[in-house]
Design brief:
CATH class of chain A: Alpha Beta
Shape of chain A: globular
InterPro entries (chains A, B): ABM_dom (IPR007138), Dimeric_a/b-barrel (IPR011008), Jasmonate_Hydroxylase-like (IPR052936)
Largest interface: A-B, 45 and 45 residues
Keywords (chains A, B): Monooxygenase, Oxidoreductase
CATH topology of chain A: Alpha-Beta Plaits
Structural class of chain A: alpha+beta
Oligomer: homodimer
Number of strands of chain A: 4
Number of domains of chain A: 1
Distance between the termini of chain A: 20 Å
Protein name (chains A, B): Antibiotic biosynthesis monooxygenase
Pfam family, one (chains A, B): ABM
Organism (chains A, B): Thermomonas brevis
Order of helices and strands of chain A: EHEEHHE
Mean pLDDT of chain A: 92
């Protein structure tokens, strides 16, 4: 496992593992509610069996990508069924996003590099 | 293929296909050079056989995620070998990033949703 260069990077084991790639366009409404829910979901996800890590970025155009990493597809399915997560997802679909896409993928290869210092 | 809700979303076929998940921390140097190279790489990638689309987000913290989508692993390998792309990658490793990670993954499932209007 490579040491993460910044807290923004997930420190992941060697592949294979799974990725849930969530891309979304925020509608700009209820930023405080959205931020609180996002922090809570991260806290809950990190406690789920099989959670490996998460990386997230959102630009000023409100388009964002969050990739969460998991040991298995079963771990993603369990997280999807988590009751509080399901309730927040249902709320989010109606209140926070103009559009979103979720892609579930099996990570087969990985490499990384830090700048020489 | 779902119609994209915004140009920020890639309009992708049904899985399976492949994803190159590139996460990076910009060092903040040479923003003009970086932007020009990123635009040029997007233009070149879009001409590559097997290119399906790309999504990208970078926050004010300089951490970004770009996910490019491809028909096959071979298409990703061909893009990696593209001479101009290889030269720009080599330059970028030394000049634009504090750190980056690349994960290559097979997308197995996908779904999306737009807000009701």
């Amino acid at each position: 496992m490579a040491e993460a260069a910044s807290p923004a990077f997930a420190a992941l084991p060697s592949p294979p593992f799974y990725a849930a790639i969530f891309s979304s366009l925020r509608n700009g409404d209820d930023e405080a509610g959205y931020q609180a829910a996002a922090a809570r979901m991260l806290e809950l996800a990190a406690r789920q069996p099989g959670f490996l890590g998460v990386e997230s970025a959102r630009g000023a155009d409100r388009f964002g990508i969050t990739v969460s990493y998991w040991e298995s597809e079963a771990a993603i399915a369990d997280w999807k069924r988590h009751a509080e997560h399901a309730a927040v997802r249902a709320h989010g679909r109606g209140h926070w996003y103009d559009h979103f896409e979720l892609r579930v993928a099996k990570v087969e290869r990985a490499y990384g590099k830090s700048a020489s210092r």
